[in-house]
Amino acid sequence: MTEDVKEKSNFIWEAIKADLAEGKNGGRVQTRFPPEPNGYLHIGHVKALAVDFTTAERFGGICNLRFDDTNPTKEKEEFVEAIKDDIHWLGFEYANVYYASEQYDQIYEFALDLIRRGLAYVDDLSKEEIREYRGTLTKPGKNSPYRDRTPEENMELFLRMKNGEFPEGSRVLRAKIDMASPNINLRDPTIYRIKYCTHHRTGDKWCIYPMYDFAHPIGDALEGVTHSLCSLEYEIHRPLYDWVVNVCGFEQKPRQIEFARLNLTNTVMSKRFLRRLVEEHYVSGWDDPRMPTLAGMRRRGYTSAAVRDFIDRVGVAKADSVVDLRLLEYCVRNDLNEVAPRAMAVLDPLKVVLTNYPEGKTEQCVIENHPKKPEMGTHTVPFTRELYIEREDFMVEAPKKYFRLKPEGEVRLKGAYIIKCEGYDLNEDGSVACVYASVDFSSKSGSEGADRKVKGTIHWVSATENVPFEGRLYDVLMLDDEPEAPAEASEEADEEEAAPAKDFTSRLNPDSLKVIHGFAEPYLGQAKPGDSFQFLRMGYFCKDKDSADSMAVFNRVVPLKDSYKPE
């Protein structure tokens, strides 16, 4: 355990300290990270994940990974493996892997026991009727006409549900608690429903599946979880969580503690909404670099160290708040500034012909891989008669304080020579087609006597020895800073009674991706997918998996600079 983790604290850790001081759980601390495998992990999950794992680490306990796979309609083994991969990428290690589906037999026995004790009944009301009977926040619910069935009747009907004798949606098993409770979640919640689909692990063994609010506390108790840490939307579900643990007779009772979920500006993190983006082809997939999924962030070039730094800066609080997305970008920029090698690439090429440079000649210029880390070494860049510079680095009519290339003006080419503009050609539309310049051969960087100073230094690449590439420049996915409404606690699991997803697509940024074509120095031809670099003066870029031998693809991770500074 690091000293840093030991020194920090938050309200969750203070509560656990109090439990330990009272001798609860035999001095043991056990947490779990319980994702549903119905999609890829996103940045919001990382906060919960970090709280679970760092809490176990802080108290010398263990954290397990449990897949709450109670809703087989959207769960896949693909998502299971992706979640494991993301956890390892972040640098966390789980002690054990569990699945709710491994506990189905035990959960089923608990349901039978509730029926025998008159604490659960089979209801024939439709989903819409159940919602109507439940009442509102200001109006108590009313009993189902099927609530007073005998345990024998309920047992027979539940066994027939299990045997596949009834249509999907025709009957459910409900806990018998209190239809007049001020907490709607205690108004006879559904604990089992009929679903005819193949489960990604149990196949077709079951056609009834436990609801998340029933399976989850049982799983925690069976596994010996001492502290069930979850986001704030589960607070209203805590009485039901405790009811299930108590009524099922567990001696060791997990304690549920809630913390504020992560809300980010210009970001949508509801899995339902993310699934729509994927399935309706607004994005290329779960790992599209615009997505807030860890897979998307990894592909874009975000580092695990930056993501963990961001989560650490956000901290753990009791009240919901909205975090500026630029804080995440700030953390990414900080980390890449330390670790990313430097290289030159031109995103919007403008040809420069060096009129006094010999045709056919090539020489090598030395570029440092990191200006503050000589141990990272250097590499060479071929210098030839024809070069590319950024179009924005030349102006015909330049303002006074423009220190890049202009007619009769001089500029230094990074790691090479000072050149002077001698003329230019225009296209029919008035844009600059080509620039002609002369080389001061006494000014080569690093050579003896090359100490003449000019105010501007620009990057460049050879026009004949380079790597052509496609650049993907990303912007925010959502246009405004309106945070999404708090998720329903059931959203990440059953979605059985969740309200229809609102149409958020009108807020999608039509300019969230801009594709350009440029040229990079040959050094970047050695890069592998996932390698990140600082393109001098242009930003941080990561080689994408779509790269081919004929065309490299680089994603812009973040721009080079931003005015944002964290408080």
Number of strands: 27
Mean pLDDT: 93
User: What structural category arises from helix and sheet content?
Assistant: alpha/beta
Lateral arrangement of strands in the main beta sheet:
12-25-26-27-23-24-13
Q: State the distance separating the first and last CA atoms.
A: 28 Å
Please provide a written account of the structure:
- The protein has 567 residues and is of the alpha/beta class.
- It is 25% helix and 23% strand.
- The chain has 13 helices and 27 strands.
- It has helices at residues 3-7, 11-21, 43-58, 77-90, 104-116, 127-134, 151-162, 212-223, 238-247, 271-279, 294-300, 304-314, 325-339, and strands spanning 30-33, 62-67, 97-99, 120-123, 172-175, 190-194, 208-210, 227-231, 255-259, 262-264, 321-323, 342-343, 345-346, 349-354, 363-368, 378-383, 386-390, 410-413, 418-426, 432-440, 457-458, 461-462, 467-474, 513-520, 532-535, 539-543, 552-558.
- The strands form seven sheets. Strands 12-25-26-27-23-24-13 form a seven-stranded mixed β-sheet.
- Helix 3 links the parallel strand 1 and strand 2 (62-67).
- Helix 12 (304-314) crosses helix 13 (325-339).
- The protein starts with a helix and ends in a 9-residue tail after the last strand.
